[in-house]
Structures are given as structure tokens and as C-alpha cells.
Design goal:
The protein has 62 residues and is mainly alpha-helical. Helices cover 42% and strands 0% of the residues.
Length: 62
């Protein structure tokens, strides 16, 4: 029985590439989310109707 030997499993890529790949994946996910940011406005304009707001700031009349 050998107790002094290390088990070494080599990674398929260097550590820097794992970081680069993860940044690219997150950037792609951000781009996809950014592409759909106004999808609700294109399909259901009544969902964003201002319910009685006059557009002025303040609490007068409420």
C-alpha cells in the first residue's frame, strides 16, 4: 500500500481559460436578456398604461 503518492488529475484547459469562457458565457446571457428588454411593450401595450397619473411629481391631489 502506497501512502505517499499524490493523485493528480490534469485539467483539460489552463485556469485562465475557465475564467475567459465563463466571462464569455455571462456576456452572451447579458446580450440575450438585453435583446428582450422591451418585448412586453411590443406585444401588450395596455400592460403599461399609466393608471391616472398626470405625470407631475408630488402628492398633491392624492
Amino acid at each position: 500500500m502506497l501512502l505517499n503518492e499524490e493523485v493528480v488529475n490534469e485539467l483539460p484547459l489552463s485556469a485562465e481559460w475557465f475564467g475567459i469562457i465563463s466571462l464569455v458565457v455571462f456576456a452572451l446571457l447579458l446580450a440575450i436578456a438585453f435583446a428582450f428588454r422591451s418585448a412586453a411593450h411590443r406585444h401588450d401595450p395596455s400592460a403599461f398604461v399609466s393608471h391616472g397619473s398626470s405625470g407631475t411629481q408630488g402628492t398633491a391631489g392624492h
